[in-house]
Hints:
Layout: H1 8-38, H2 46-94, H3 116-158, H4 165-204, H5 215-235, H6 241-263
Amino acid sequence: MEKVVPQKSSFDVAEKLDKWHVVLAYVTAGISFATGILSGFQFTLPLLQKLVETWLPGAVFVLTVATGILHCLFTHQYQQAEAIRRDDFFDNAFGCLLGDNHSSGYFSNDRTSLGLKKALLNVNENCFFSLDIIQHMLRRRIMFAFPLGLLLLAVVALNIGGHSFIMLAINLFLALDIVADLVRLYRLKLSLEEVHGSCKTILSSHALDNDNIQLQAAGSVIREIVRYETALSYASTMFDSKYFNKINSQKAKDWEAYKKRYLQ
C-alpha cells in the first residue's frame, strides 16, 4: 500500500523556510560577533575602518530584518501544516472527515479500532519517535548554537567595540533568540516525556480495553492529546527529517515491541 501523508507537502515548504531562517540567523550572529570584535581595533586603511563602522553593522541590520521575515513566513506555513496534521490525526483515530485527504500507512495502528485507544496510541507513537529526534537536535544545538549565543551576550554585556545602542539591541535580540530556541526545544522534550509516561500508565492499566470506557479514562486520554498538541504549538519547531529517516526503521521495530509489552 502506498504511504499517504496529507501534511507532507506543507511541512516540506515549512522545513525549507526554517532551514533558510536558521542559516541566515547563524550567519547574522556570526557577522555581528565579528563586528563587535573588529570594532575594538583602529585600522590604518580608511576602507577597512568604514567596513567595520558602517558596512558590517548595516549588513547585520538588513540580515536581522530578513531573518525576522523568514521566521514569520515559517511560522505561518508551519501553522498551516500543523492544522492539516491535526485534522488527519482525528480522522485517523475517530473516523472523522475533517481533512481533504486521509493518511494511509502513516500511523502503524491502523488495525486498532476507532476510538480513544487508537488516539492514545497515535499520540504515544508520535512521542516515541519524537523524543529521540529532539535529543539529537538538542545535542547539536548545545554544541553549536548555544556557544554563539553566549558569545553575543558577552559582546552586549562588555560592550566590546563600543557599539551603538542599535547594534547592542540587535546583538541582544540575536543572542536571546538563539537561547530561547534552545529553551523551547528543551521544554518540548520535557513535555513529551511527561505525555509519553502518562500514555504508558494509561495503556498498562488496561482502562481502554473494554468497549464501555469509563469517563475518567476518557478524560485522561483527552488530557494527553491536549498536552501533546499544546507542547507542539508552543515549540513551533521543525523536527530533523534526515535524522528521522535514519532511525525510522529501527524505531518502528522498537515501537512494535513496545506495543506488545503494554497492550498485553
